[in-house]
Design goal:
By secondary structure, the chain is mainly alpha-helical. The chain is built from six helices and no strands. Helix 2 (30-37) runs parallel beside helix 6 and helix 3 (41-54) packs across helix 4. It starts with a helix and ends in a 5-residue tail after the last helix. InterPro entries: SMc04008-like_domain, SMc04008-like_sf.
């Protein structure tokens, strides 16, 4: 398989993951993703910004989040993100102690 075909497939997979997390499953909270998978939608935005900046494209945190969420993060958060429960916060802290931060 050529490099360009590999890149096209990877891009399609990324877009599908993005749509799934943002549009299909907005009910899954970012903190739950962090607890279970070690990354969340905001991590995707950080990685997106890192990749852009590695290629000489300046991007703010807000611009990267809008690229992932498809709208300003504050709007998406107000509609879909609930306040973390004490149980979620405790689980998140426990995971942070046992697993190094992914990149």
């Amino acid at each position: 398989m050529s490099d360009s075909t590999t890149t096209e497939i990877e891009a399609a997979v990324f877009r599908r993951l993005q749509r799934h997390l943002v549009q299909t499953r907005p009910d899954v909270q970012n903190i739950d993703l962090m607890i279970l998978a070690g990354f969340c939608r905001n991590c995707l935005a950080d990685w997106y910004r890192d990749a852009a900046e590695a290629r000489g494209v300046a991007m703010t945190k807000d611009q990267a989040r809008e690229a992932i969420y498809g709208r300003p993060f504050a709007d998406w958060k107000a509609q879909h993100q609930a306040q973390a429960t004490p149980e979620q916060l405790a689980a998140f802290e426990a995971v942070q102690r046992t697993h190094p931060k992914g990149d």
